[in-house]
Amino acid sequence: MLLFLLRRTVGFLATLLAISVIVFAVMNLLPGDPALTVLGIDSTEDARAALRAQMGLDRPAAERFLAWIGGALVGDFGTSWSFGVPVAGLIAERLPLTLSLAASGMVVTLVVALALGMAAAANHRRPGDWAMMLLSQLGIAVPAFWLAILLVLLFAVTLRWLPPGGFPGWGEPAAAASSLILPTISLALVQSAVLARVTRSAALEAMRLDFVRTARATGLSPARILWRHVLPNALAPIVTIVGMQFAGVVTGAIVIENVFYLPGLGRLIFQSIANRDLITVQALVLMFAAIVVAANFLVDVAYVLIDPRLKARAT
Fold it and tell me: What pLDDT score was predicted for residue 312?
């Protein structure tokens, strides 16, 4: 097991290093002059040259990369060109909102998807199964940002039950929670559609195995068989999709935060791109990439924990 974790950790770090090189290369190959964007077209060449020197753009690319990645290892991503404050401080300020939105979206996704998927499997080829398949197909077809707009029109504009956007801050817990309801639903419903179909397929496959017939023969209730025996044996594909979807929920929050005007990392990366604040964009892209890689790492570890055959191989 320790050897397995060591191999996966080395692969995780190597992937992050490769991603950091790609991100830095892409950011520095983009056309345009960041100094011109910051100072405007009316600025003088001397002023732009001085700002480039202050930004470190006059140094060789290799030297800038080593300085950037060395600082990132200790949590120093440099100073934002447009905000004039440390990038790490900007991320630390906005990260809790994005993580809260992603976590709530993932919890709702799991609850809705597992309930619908298992119910559909239990009612295979019945109206309940067909209804779930239809709803999941609609959920897959609907873009999250369009669903978010529809939810705003219904619950904020027409019914006025929930705020249409904005975030009052964590100092007002009730208002903060209500402002995250619509964004959470927007993220979760689309992801739930995919996971519900995977859950249904995995559960149906597990229900065809011999141990399920044996459990029925012993007189166990259908609900006990479904949740205590079928679900644990259907977890492998479900865990795979959950790992992928958590990364998708975090990155999907970028769009949802802009729809609902939430001051998280999603709005920060849009603002940084618009201001050509490359140092901030680099840090945010690297962070989102690290979340995706970490999710895959955790999925690999979860496989070993839930599948005894893989656990035996890992040891």
Answer: 55
Residue 312 resides in a domain: no
73, with CB counted inside 10 A (0-12, 13-18, 19+), is: exposed
| Residue 59 lies in domain | 2-73
102 & 67 share domain: no
Domain co-membership, 107 together with 191: yes
Residue 39 pLDDT: 72
Secondary structure, 3-state, the chain: CHHHHHHHHHHHHHHHHHHHHHHHHHHHHCCCCHHHHHHCCCCCHHHHHHHHHHHCCCCCHHHHHHHHHHHHHCCCCCECCCCCCEHHHHHHHHHHHHHHHHHHHHHHHHHHHHHHHHHHHHCCCCHHHHHHHHHHHHHHHCCHHHHHHHHHHHHHHHCCCCCCCCCCCCCCHHHHHHHCHHHHHHHHHHHHHHHHHHHHHHHHHHHCCHHHHHHHHCCCCHHHHHHHHHHHHCHHHHHHHHHHHHHHHHHHHHHHHHHCCCCCHHHHHHHHHHCCCHHHHHHHHHHHHHHHHHHHHHHHHHHHHHCHHHHHHHC
Given this model, what pLDDT does residue 315 score?
56
Co-location of 18 and 138 in the same domain:
no
User: 284 lies in a domain?
Assistant: no
Rounded to two decimals, the pTM is 0.81
Q: Residues of the chain with pLDDT > 90: what percent? A: 4
| Average pLDDT score over the chain | 83
Over residues 13-37, the mean pLDDT reads 79
Is residue 112 domain-shared with residue 244, that is, in the same domain?
Answer: yes
> How much of the chain exceeds pLDDT 70, in percent?
94
